[in-house]
Amino acid sequence: MNITIHTMQDCDWESVAAIYEQGIKSVNATFRSILPTFEEWNNSHIRKCRLVAVTHDKIVGWAALTKTSGMSAFDGVAELSLYIADDCKRKGIGKLLLENLITDSEKNGFWTLQSNIFQENLASIELHKKCGFRVIGIRERVAKDKNGNWRTNVLLEKRSTVVGID
Question: What are the DSSP calls for 99-119, one per residue?
């Protein structure tokens, strides 16, 4: 499968939203219960470091960053979101997207990336570990999902070896 990674454009939202909605329906990717509007999504994600994975002119995955804090001291720390279309999982797309997101984030001054993943989502946890993330904590029964079930998150982090090393 020939995959290319591009900067996400506003016009990509329809495809990005369809993949995001698959994650919402899975109940194993996000606490969200409904798809945000583009405006809501756009306002909550950092403008830089938005990527899409494309094959055969079709978007099959996306990745983006959100701030972890409103304090300027944390401007180099971001939480990542990464979603792959259901019919394209386990084909190396997530790894390619995550590696490109790490590189792009470092070019844009981010020294720490974090990810909160449901403990049952073993494939995502392993993907992050393969890309240099380490488990820094467990957030036990941190919130209820859309079905009212308490969920536990694994908190992973990757510290850059090229940004923020002074």
Answer: HHHHHHHHHTT--EEEEEEET
DSSP β-bridge partners for residue 59: 54
What are the pLDDT digits (tens) for 18-39? 999 999 999 899 999 999 999 9
Burial class (CB in 10 A: 0-12, 13-18, 19+), 113: buried
The pLDDT, as a whole number, for residue 158 is: 98
- Alpha carbons within 13 angstroms on the beta-carbon side of residue 83 total 24
CA proximity to 8, closest of 55, 44, 43, 59: 59
Contact 64, 45 (CB under 8 A): yes
How confident is the model over 108-159, as pLDDT tens digits? 999 999 999 999 999 999 999 999 999 999 999 999 999 999 999 999 999 9
Supply 55's token pair: 């094959």
Phi-psi region of 134 (alpha: psi -120 to 50; beta: other; left: phi over 0): beta
- Could you tell me the pTM of the whole model? 0.95
The enclosing H or E element of 121 equals none
Report the candidate in 119, 121, 61, 120 with the shortest Cα–Cα distance to residue 92: 61
List the domains of the chain with CATH numbers: 4-159 (3.40.630.30)
